[in-house]
């Protein structure tokens, strides 16, 4: 029977292991997960706050942060701004998360030790992973004996995948220039250690799914 464990290491670190265990350990780990792992809030009902700087205009901010389908007039209405030509510096503007621009944010391979194979999302033949290359949504990596790989994500969070492990990259995206990043990973086998950057807004996520549980780190 598969199992997943997550436990805090040093501040900002998380270790996750998928392997075999007894039913007693399974129950214990599930209890531990409930106590230690935080689930992400629903981002769609929240706002990201921006503090106005001198020279800011609604149309410039809309072009920088909003999806093309969302006009700056909607931002004006949401914040109840009477005069769109005058934004007092220091004032907080609220941007609904669902309105924000979302962009791909590939992971970067920092280091490879031993034999690590990549199964790309485009279905191409498996090949060796190289340090310095980028990995994308849907890619999967697998480590062999005495092997490991270290990945860095858009918010500078890092993951090290240990030997005999398999990881799939389910979501790698960022909310424009807000600093918020959505990273979702699936640990299908083995062990991974993580150093997670503190969240920069309500939509920031760092989630690792495993066969029996999901661990989430925010804040």
Helix/strand/pairing category: mainly beta
Please mark out the parts with pLDDT under 50 across 5 or more consecutive residues, or reply none. 1-11, 20-44
Q: What is the number of E strands?
A: 16
Shape: elongated
Strand content: 35-45%
What's the tally of helices?
3
Our count of domains comes out at 2
Q: How large, in whole angstroms, is the Cα Rg? A: 20 Å
Distance between the termini: 32 Å
What is the subunit arrangement here? single chain
Largest sheet: 14 strands, mixed
Order of helices and strands: EEHEHHEEEEEEEEEEEEE
Averaged pLDDT: 83
* Fraction of residues in helix: 10-25%
Question: Which terms would index this structure?
Answer:
Membrane-bound Lytic Murein Transglycosylase D, Chain A; 16 strands; mainly beta; 219 residues; 41% strand; 14-stranded mixed sheet; disordered N terminus; 3 helices
Written overview of the protein:
The protein has 219 residues and is mainly β. The protein has helices spanning 23-36, 58-65, 72-78, and strands spanning 2-8, 13-20, 47-51, 92-96, 103-104, 107-113, 116-119, 127-128, 134-135, 140-143, 148-152, 158-161, 166-174, 181-195, 205-210, 213-216. The strands form two sheets. Strands 1, 2, 5, 6, 7, 8, 9, 10, 11, 12, 13, 14, 15 and 16 form a 14-stranded mixed sheet that branches. The longest helix has 14 residues, at 23-36. The chain is elongated and about 65 Å long.
């Amino acid at each position: 029977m598969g199992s997943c464990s997550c436990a805090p290491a040093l501040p900002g670190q998380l270790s996750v292991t998928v392997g075999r265990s007894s039913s007693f350990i399974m129950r214990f780990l599930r209890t531990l997960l409930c106590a230690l792992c935080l689930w992400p809030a629903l981002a769609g009902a929240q706002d990201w706050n921006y503090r106005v700087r001198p020279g800011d205009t609604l149309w410039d901010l809309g072009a920088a942060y909003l999806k093309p389908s969302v006009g700056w007039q909607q931002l004006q209405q949401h914040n109840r701004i009477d005069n769109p030509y005058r934004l007092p510096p220091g004032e907080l503007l609220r941007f609904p998360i669902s309105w924000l621009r979302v962009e791909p944010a590939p992971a970067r391979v920092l280091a490879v030790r031993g034999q690590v194979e990549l199964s790309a999302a485009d279905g191409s033949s498996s090949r060796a992973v190289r340090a310095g290359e980028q990995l994308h949504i849907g890619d999967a990596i697998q480590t062999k004996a005495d092997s490991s790989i270290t990945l860095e994500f858009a918010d500078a969070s890092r993951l090290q995948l240990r030997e005999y492990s398999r990881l799939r990259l389910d979501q790698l995206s960022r909310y424009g220039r807000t600093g918020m990043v959505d990273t979702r990973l699936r640990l299908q086998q083995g062990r991974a250690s993580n150093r997670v950057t503190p969240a920069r807004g309500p939509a920031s996520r760092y989630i690792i799914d495993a066969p029996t549980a999901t661990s989430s780190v925010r804040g």
